[in-house]
Specification:
The structure holds 2 protein chains of 2 kinds.
Chain A (H helix, E strand, L loop, with lengths): L4 H29 L3 H4 L14 H7 L10 H33 L5 H12 L3 H14 L6 H25 L4 H8 L4 H12 L1 H17 L2 H6 L8 H7 L8 H21 L1 H14 L1
Helix pairs in contact in A: 1-13, 3-13, 4-7, 4-10, 4-12, 5-7, 7-10, 8-9, 10-14, 12-13
Chain B lengths: L1 H32 L22 H7 L2 H32 L6 H7 L1 H5 L2 H11 L6 H9 L12 H29 L3 H9 L4 H29 L3 H6 L11 H11 L3 H30 L1
Helix pairs in contact in B: 1-13, 2-13, 3-8, 3-10, 6-8, 8-10, 10-13, 12-13
The chains are: A mainly alpha, B mainly alpha.
């Protein structure tokens, strides 16, 4: 459909609207990270600070840790990286086998199990917060990264299985069947044929799990108490608790913490877009 | 024999994890909601079978004004934010579906709020709304919409709506990208027929685009509704349920009564009552997929 000049003008105005909507809060965030505390606490309307400074960044990267090692921010970032990567790897690893079984094997109760997987995906996390806390606290397993990793793995597993089995089903069976004739085992088929062909699906699913794990706050806030295990979301929420709210530090730490997921999303955007549309078609 | 064991071997690891971290805790939560478990200052009581109190905790929840008010707020938050996300998301998707220079860039750019961590989003907007020096507070005063700087997070109604704005900013992109993906797979023929008939753009949108998009719209709406109904992080950071409980939603009430006040059994009962609504949304969701599979 060819558009007239007026229509084109409106389209570009719309695009400008989309861009401003998206960019303005982010722009204010970035500017704030470079503003001095005097600028941040000024009681007048201003968009650019009078004094540009890296002060907030040095504060975030220095900050004293209780045991004198890494600053809290760096420790929390490290914890988040470990927890998110391990949970994603584990959920994918366990999910791949289960998804393959649902997609390719015939066994009794398969469809019922698959539907219950979809059901588990919808269990509100807060229902599990109380029993998991009681269980883990009594086993002395709070404030350990592996506990968080286990919880995130479990919460993401139903989603991973559901997504991957739908990807696996979309792969033509012909090659697998001939390989099967040649006596290749199921594991061989899975790793040599199915997984390489469903790489986009694996990447898309992996990014979703990674971002969800990076984003998680409620469980981390309850299951961690020191920087041995505290993740970045908890650290950011606590930059304000030391007596007074340090907005400069909170905002700068927050900005830095949002760089990894945003970079990942931008780098792998074609997988995310296809994952989102896949998700809307197959759930 | 081996044939029968193979699926079992492939499924076993996932069974163990789901059983241990989801299914068993779910049953345990049900048990906790039927006893009277509290956390004292020093120690967590042992959950004991003989503490069975029947439906007492559920009765307490349903008889509690705090619950009904939180339910009302949760519904208000959910429908207002999802509604706005849908309207704005649809408008954005329609724009991005047009041909223009730099379309790929704009589409990638829209992923940023989606990937932006919820906690950071909450911190950002809390600062923008700051009573003394928040940019939005200052801007509203400068325009003259408010008489002097007003603490938007200081009264229940404005605090709730301020949080909704923050939530809408982050989540509109998700709705928009799902709608856009669906728009791009719409058949061109339907539009060409509409053009020949001379139907106006508005007419074409309501009589062609909207009906054809309805499956994707339903999915986006149900997914967002289930997420929004569980809203927690942004409330925790921006208001902590305040002012005076004005933004106290169901998740936060559950968290507060169990984790802050140690009323684990009451909290569990509350979480189950809350899940009842999620189950309804989930049924709608599964139904959509089943209808499509047929």
């Amino acid at each position: 459909m060819e558009r007239t000049k007026t229509q084109k003008l409106f389209i570009y105005l719309g695009v400008l609207g989309v861009m401003l909507f998206t960019a303005l809060p982010l722009l204010l965030l970035v500017i704030a990270t470079f503003s001095s505390s005097a600028d941040l606490s000024a009681k007048t309307l201003h968009f650019l600070p009078q004094h540009w400074t890296f002060g907030n960044y040095t504060k975030v990267f220095s900050g004293e840790a209780s045991d004198g090692s890494l600053p809290p921010f760096m420790k929390a970032m490290g914890n988040s990286v470990i927890v998110a990567l391990c949970a994603t790897a584990l959920a994918l690893f366990i999910g791949i086998f289960a998804a393959y079984a649902y997609a390719r094997f015939r066994f009794r109760g398969r469809d019922t199990l698959l539907i219950s997987i979809l059901g588990f995906r919808m269990v509100p996390e807060i229902v599990l917060l109380i029993p998991l806390y009681v269980l883990f606290a009594r086993m002395g397993m709070v404030n350990h990264k592996p506990t968080l990793i286990l919880i995130y793995t479990a919460f993401n597993l139903p989603f991973v299985i559901w997504m991957l089995q739908s990807y696996f089903r979309s792969i033509p069976k012909s090659m697998e069947e001939s390989a099967q004739m040649d006596g290749v085992s199921s594991l061989g088929i899975l790793f040599r044929f199915v997984l390489p062909l469903s790489l986009p699906g694996l990447v898309a699913t992996g990014i979703f799990v990674l971002l969800i794990s990076w984003d998680e706050f409620m469980f981390s806030s309850i299951f961690t108490s020191t920087y041995d295990a505290k993740t970045i979301t908890v650290a950011i929420s606590e930059f304000s608790k030391r007596g007074m709210i340090d907005f400069g530090m909170q905002i700068t730490g927050g900005f830095l913490a949002s760089i990894p997921p945003i970079a990942l999303a931008l780098l792998l955007q074609k997988y995310i877009i296809s994952g989102l549309s896949e998700g809307s078609e197959k759930g | 024999m081996i044939r029968k064991l193979k699926p079992a071997a492939f499924l076993l690891p996932s069974f163990i994890v789901i059983l241990g971290v989801i299914l068993f805790p779910l049953a345990y939560a049900l048990f906790i909601s039927f006893i009277n478990l509290t956390k004292n200052v020093h120690k967590l009581d042992n959950p004991k079978l003989w503490d069975y109190v029947g439906f007492e905790n559920f009765g307490k929840v349903l008889g509690d004004d705090a619950f009904w008010q939180a339910l009302g707020r949760t519904f208000y938050f959910t429908f207002t934010s999802v509604g706005l996300e849908f309207i704005i998301g649809m408008a954005f998707a329609l724009i991005l579906n047009e041909k223009f220079k730099g379309r790929g860039f704009v589409r990638g750019f829209m992923l940023i709020p989606w990937a932006f961590p919820t906690i950071v989003n909450a911190v950002l907007w809390k600062w923008l709304y700051d009573a003394d020096h928040g940019t939005i507070t200052m801007l509203l005063d400068w325009i003259g919409l408010t008489d002097g700087p007003v603490n938007l997070l200081g009264s229940s109604f404005s605090a709730m709506n301020a949080i909704i704005v923050a939530d809408v900013w982050k989540n509109t992109a998700f709705v928009s990208l799902i709608l856009l993906a669906a728009m791009q797979s719409l058949p061109k023929e339907a539009y060409e027929a509409g053009m020949i008939d001379g139907a106006s753009a508005v007419r074409r949108f309501f009589s062609i685009t909207l009906p054809l998009l309805s499956p994707a719209i339903l999915v986006a709406l149900v997914m967002r509704t289930m997420e929004a109904f569980k809203v927690f992080d942004i409330i925790y950071i921006m208001t902590g349920g305040g002012p005076a409980g004005g933004t106290q939603v169901l998740s936060f009430l559950t968290y507060q009564s169990s984790m802050m006040f140690g009323k684990f059994s009451y909290g569990s009962a509350l979480a189950f009552v809350m899940s009842f609504f999620i189950v309804i949304f989930a049924f709608i969701y599964i139904k959509i997929f089943y209808k499509r599979a047929d």
